[in-house]
Each structure stands twice: as structure tokens, then as C-alpha cells.
Amino acid sequence: MEIKPKPDVVIWLVRDSVRLADNPALVAAVQEAEQRGVLLIPLACLDPCRWAGQQFGLARAGKVWSRFRIESLVDLKDQLELQGSTLWVSSEGVADTVNLISETVCVSCVVTDLPLATEERLENACLVTAGYQVIEVETDELFDKVQLPFPLDELPSTFSKFRKVVEKKSALDPLIPLGIPKLPPIPKQPWSKPLQWLEQSEIKSLDTQSLLIGGRKAGLAYWHGYLESGALSHYKETRNAFEGLYQSSYLSSWLAHGCLSAREVWADVLVYEQSQGANESTYWLRFELLWREFFHWYSRVSDWTLFRKSGPEARDVAGDQCQKRFQRWAAGATGCDIVDAAMCELQATGWMSNRARQLVASHLIYESGLDWRLGAAFFESQLVDYDVASNWGNWAYIAGVGPDPCGGRVFNLDQQAERYDPQGVYRQRWLSK
Ligand SMILES: Cc1cc2nc3c(=O)[nH]c(=O)nc-3n(C[C@H](O)[C@H](O)[C@H](O)COP(=O)(O)OP(=O)(O)OC[C@H]3O[C@@H](n4cnc5c(N)ncnc54)[C@H](O)[C@@H]3O)c2cc1C
User: Whole domain around residue 52: which residue ranges?
Assistant: First the structure.
């Protein structure tokens, strides 16, 4: 009997860059498939470790985050189908899924984003141990590693130093965003479709006050509306507001799920500056994107130390895990109005402004006397824009175990409330819910 050889495939493993445009990992995967003359399978894994896992007794994937991610994956699948391809979605972990695929085809290699943190790095290592070739591609940052004017193990120790070095280097511009490559067709996925099931599940009908819709289509529509409104020209004056359409950019969810790339936003800001004029505000959005950039590289350099209590800087800090105080903080019942209002907003919408995030973090660490990692884990379980590097990096920063030259940030909460919510409108809105 003739034994048919298994066909070869290249897998494009979609992690937190859920888009076709400006996706270097996808471009590399298509090239690999073309060079090897094999099929390309775009694959996303709804790994139970993340989707059903817990840390500190808290769910890792929050409901609002999950809904946003599903919307983003459905949108990606639609885009792929318009190109004659599709998206395979599995409800298993990465290694189990790739093993399952290799039962029927021969996996030539797996192409995916350069790991952002320990979990992704270990997943890739697991694939390599299982005998698969893994190609890691820098996908979601402004700069490629080779563009950075220092070796990664000499990453400047603070954001200010990082920004100065990066801004000083002449001709250091983010690469021009990439177009969408031509995709080869692929067969339908051979197992049941978790995406369809999830779409019909309670997550889809979740009752939240979030106005953020996942997916590139929604992200682009929002971003174009923002640019057309002219809000960017006064971004620096408004971005510290607690809430309000176009006060800050509200881009974080689409950036965190990778529906839009930071380089696309950067490039659009430059175009905007040419037609509408450049000022401090238009520069400031790029300044904020550099914070994201810094935390992304910081997370890679810190690896597992980002998740220990003493943080990457190995500093002994106070803070316990008292459940009673933690529950009061999480439920917005601390008695501090501004903190309680922000926590109510977070629970209702999955979102909170940057200013509010800093204040509630300061309260958890310095007033409630809790281990900062409880706060980071709670944010992970609630935020629609959860991004491992930005979340854990900012928490470590405020707790004084991260890249903060001052060794931590303690905020005067009453003064902050007075300054940024002088009429108490924000506090009234969320405390009366
Ligand atoms: C304790 C704490 C936890 C945080 N957790 C997250 C998180 O999980 N995901 C996340 O995307 N951001 C996080 N941030 C950063 C910041 O609060 C949000 O990016 C921002 O509030 C989102 O609103 P925006 O898109 O309107 O941001 P803007 O203020 O308009 O900023 C534009 C973009 O720049 C980036 N950015 C701005 N500030 C920061 C910052 N301090 N660190 C990293 N990137 C930044 C974001 O991508 C943001 O979308 C956290 C901040 C703190 C203090």
C-alpha cells in the first residue's frame, strides 16, 4: 500500500498582534511558506492557562478582555477569509495544538512574535524542545532590536534615560508600517470551532458599559474619528482627565490586542502634523508610545523577575496579602472617594484612565498596605487593555521595585482628586452607581 507523505505547513501563531497589516511575523511566515513551497496556517490558541487560569485566586482573563479578544479574532478571521485564507482557533495550549496539527501535516516551522514575557518565552521553548523550529519576529514595537542604540542587556535603567537616548540618536525612526502580504489558501480547521462557541456564550452577551469594540475595523474607525476631531492638537492638556471621549487617546485596547500597531499610530501622527501642524500635544502622543516601548523592552530584560515581589530591582518592600483589605480596595469600598469611584468604573467598564490607575495603585500599596502583585493581578483580571509589560511594569514602577529613579510613587489622593476632579463630577458619577 502506498503511504502518502504528510503535506508540509508553516504555522503563523497569532498572539497579541491580531492584525494583518503591519505584521512582520505574518510577513515572515508568508515568506517562509513561499520559500518552502508549503501551506500557511494562521493559528490562535485560547490557552486554558490564560483563559481559565488563576493567580492570587483571581481569573487571569477578564470578561471584558475576553470579549474584546474574541471580537478581534473574529475580525481577523473575516479579514483572512477575504484573502482566501482563514484562522484556525484552538482551545488548547500552543504545544498541544501544534502536536495535534502535526498528526496530519508536517509542521516545517512556527513563526510568531518575539516573546513579550516569561510565559510566551516558555511556550516557545516548549515547542523547540518538542522538535519544532520556531522563528521569533519583532512585531509589536516601534523599533527593532537592532535599531536600538544599545544592546538589550544595557537597556537604560529608567524611562527618561531610555527616551533621551532614543530621541538623541539621529535617524532613529520607527520602520514604515508594512502592507498586507498575499496569503495562500488553506483547508478548513479539522476540529470544532471554539470561536463560534465563545461568540454565542455569555461573554458575548456580557452586560458592561464598555464602549470599546474589539477588532481592527472598529479600531481604525475610532482612530480616524479621533484624528478628524482635531483632539490630538490639544492632547497634552486633556490626557490627564479621568474620563471623556477623546480626552486621552483611548487607543490602549486596540494596541494591547494588536489590532493597530504602534508604528501605524506613530506614522499617522506624523501625517497629521504635516496637515494640521505639529505642537507639544502631537509630540506627546508619540512620547506616550515611548513609555509603552520602554516597558515592552523592560519586560523582556526582566523576564520572571517582573513577577516577584521584590521586582526586577530586587528591593525588599512591605505589603501583605490580607484578603479583607484587598476586597475593600477591589470593591471600591476603601472610603477614599477618588479610589472608590475609579474602582467602580473599572468593574463596570474594564477601563480606567492613566491618572486613576496611578492613584488606585498608590492606595493599594501605600494606604492599604498590600502586596503590589495583588493589584497587578486584579488589573490583569479586569482591564480590557491588559498588556503584560505595561501592566506589571507600571505596578512595579509605582511599588518602587521597577524602573523608577525615585524608588516608588506615593500620591496625595485628596490633592489629586481636587486637582483633576474639582467639581467631583467623576466621583459622583461612579459612586452613585
Ligand atoms: C498601574 C498601571 C497599570 C497599567 N496597565 C496597563 C495595561 O495593562 N495596558 C496598557 O496598555 N496600559 C497600561 N497602563 C498604562 C496607561 O495607564 C494606559 O495605557 C492608558 O491609561 C490607556 O489610555 P489611553 O489609550 O487613552 O492612553 P494615552 O494616555 O492616550 O496614551 C497613548 C498610548 O500610550 C501608551 N501608554 C501611555 N501611558 C503608558 C504607560 N504609563 N505605560 C505604558 N504605556 C503607556 C498606551 O499604549 C496608550 O494607549 C497602566 C498604568 C498604570 C499606572
Answer: 8-140
Q: Which of 354, 339, 246 is nearest to 292 (CA)?
A: 354
Q: Which amino acid is at 363?
A: H
Among the candidates 140, 158, 182, a domain finishes at: 140
Q: Domain of 31: which CATH number? A: 3.40.50.620
Q: Is the CB of 261 under 6 A from ligand 1?
A: no
User: Which pLDDT tens digit goes with each residue over 197-220?
Assistant: 666 666 666 666 667 899 999 999
Q: List the strands of the sheet with 134-137, edge to edge.
A: 88-90, 39-45, 8-14, 106-113, 134-137
Q: In sequence order, what DSSP letters do the residues of 234-253 get, joined into one string?
A: GHHHHTTSSS-TTTS---HH
Look at residue 295 and tell me if it is in a domain: no
Ligand 1 neighbour 384 (Cβ under 6 A)? no
Predicted confidence (pLDDT) at residue 170 exceeds the cutoff of 80: no
Cβ-contact 290, 262 below 8 angstroms = no
The total of structural domains in the chain comes to 2
Cβ of residue 289 lying under 6 Å from some atom of ligand 1: yes
Q: Identify whether 60 is part of a domain.
A: yes
Domain boundary among 140, 163, 198: 140
pLDDT in tens, 301-354: 999 999 999 999 999 999 999 999 999 999 999 999 999 999 999 999 999 999
